[in-house]
């Protein structure tokens, strides 16, 4: 039975590349599907859901592409500065962060900006949405890690970091998250809000991907990809993937094995077959594609049998309406240890229509 995904990569040359990857038995093939030159500066972020692909660039725009209709959806113009990160929540919402410190929530049905949040005083470097949809994390150049309550759209807590973090990522089950600073990975427990493990990578980290709830794939300023066990802090597997530094790593599951996708400055996109055992062996190369461009970002587009967006229920005028609705069967506890309540983010109340005091 055939299997098909789309690999989409962005480049310094302002172009996004799409390759259709097919599997028939043991044979893997990649064919060029599209090239999209919608930006006027290098691409800095790319994200996908089961219908749309969004790309962000230094030209301050987010370009959209409808993979079902194979048409350009236009551009989102709201940020003032480089688009630093993009992440879809389900099929109904897109979150974006930028150099201007803003976090924006977009509804995919009409591509309207539902919320604009002043998330950081400096650049918003990375964001991640909890699997339940209740929480989001963001890090920025103001040396803070911020927790966002997506139920009401407000900032819940701030944790001051020693250095400005580069990446933040929830685990697959949402019970832990990682914060990456240069080559250091700090693993946090959600319930206690404490660092449970610290891992040092040999080189600066540019991309991370959870393959399992406690297995993290790490790539950065060298030629190798490393798989770390977050409970034991052990490097379970290391393999040389490229000749130059690796800019992005992603993955998807096929049958009983994981396919790790890597993109590098050398212009190559490679797919690796990895069995996620207790002691995984170095993966086997399935195929490689030479884009002849300097790649910057990567995503795996996985179409489903039914490409129907799951739009949220009709909403009222409350803040909750505009944000992703959480799963009912998941409960998330926000710990208050080692964090401080953000008091300066709430606007001061002003009295209106106050009666003048009568002079005596």
Automatic annotation (TrEMBL):
GO cellular component terms, semicolon-separated: nucleolus
Key words, A-Z: Nucleus, Repeat, Ribosome biogenesis, Signal transduction inhibitor, WD repeat
Sequence intervals crossing the membrane: none
InterPro entries: PAK1-Kinase_Regulator, WD40/YVTN_repeat-like_dom_sf, WD40_repeat_CS, WD40_repeat_dom_sf, WD40_rpt
Main location (coarse class): nucleus
WD repeats mapped onto the chain: 76-116, 117-158
Gene3D superfamilies named among the record's database cross-references: YVTN repeat-like/Quinoprotein amine dehydrogenase
Gene Ontology BP terms: negative regulation of signal transduction; ribosome biogenesis
Location of region: Disordered: 305-331
Intracellular or extracellular location(s): Nucleus, Nucleolus
Job description of the protein: Negatively regulates the PAK1 kinase. PAK1 is a member of the PAK kinase family, which has been shown to play a positive role in the regulation of signaling pathways involving MAPK8 and RELA. PAK1 exists as an inactive homodimer, which is activated by binding of small GTPases such as CDC42 to an N-terminal regulatory domain. PAK1IP1 also binds to the N-terminus of PAK1, and inhibits the specific activation of PAK1 by CDC42. May be involved in ribosomal large subunit assembly.
Name assigned to this protein: P21-activated protein kinase-interacting protein 1-like
Organism of derivation: Clupea harengus
């Amino acid at each position: 039975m055939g299997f098909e995904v789309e690999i989409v990569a962005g480049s310094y040359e302002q172009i996004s590349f799409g390759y259709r990857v097919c599997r028939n038995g043991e044979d893997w093939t990649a064919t060029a599907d599209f090239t999209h030159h919608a930006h006027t500066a290098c691409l800095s972020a790319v994200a996908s859901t089961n219908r749309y692909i969004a790309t962000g660039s230094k030209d301050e725009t987010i370009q959209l592409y409808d993979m079902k209709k194979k048409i350009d959806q236009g551009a989102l113009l709201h940020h003032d500065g480089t688009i630093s990160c993009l992440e879809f929540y389900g099929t109904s919402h897109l979150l974006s962060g930028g150099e201007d410190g803003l976090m924006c929530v977009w509804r995919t049905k009409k591509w309207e900006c539902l919320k604009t949040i002043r998330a950081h005083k400096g650049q918003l470097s990375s964001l991640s949405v909890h699997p339940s949809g209740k929480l989001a994390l963001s890090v920025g150049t103001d040396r803070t890690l911020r927790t966002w309550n997506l139920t009401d759209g407000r900032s819940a807590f701030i944790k001051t970091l020693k250095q400005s973090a580069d990446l933040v990522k929830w685990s697959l089950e949402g019970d832990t998250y990682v914060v990456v600073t240069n080559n250091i990975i700090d693993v946090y427990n959600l319930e206690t809000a404490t660092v449970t493990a610290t891992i040092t990578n040999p080189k600066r980290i540019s991309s991370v991907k959870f393959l399992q709830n406690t297995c993290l794939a790490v790539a950065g300023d060298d030629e190798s990809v490393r798989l770390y066990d977050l409970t034991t802090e052990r490097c379970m597997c290391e393999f040389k993937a490229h000749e130059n530094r690796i800019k992005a790593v992603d993955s998807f599951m096929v049958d009983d094995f994981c396919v790790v996708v890597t993109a590098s400055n050398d212009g190559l996109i490679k797919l690796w077959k990895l069995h996620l055992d207790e002691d995984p062996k170095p993966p086997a190369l399935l195929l490689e594609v030479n884009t002849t461009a300097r790649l910057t970002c990567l995503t795996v587009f996985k179409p489903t049998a039914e490409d129907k967006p799951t739009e949220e229920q009709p909403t009222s005028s409350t803040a909750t309406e505009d944000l992703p609705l959480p799963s009912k069967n998941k409960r998330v506890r926000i710990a208050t240890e080692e964090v401080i309540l953000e008091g300066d983010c709430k606007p001061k109340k002003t009295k209106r229509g106050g009666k003048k005091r009568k002079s005596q």
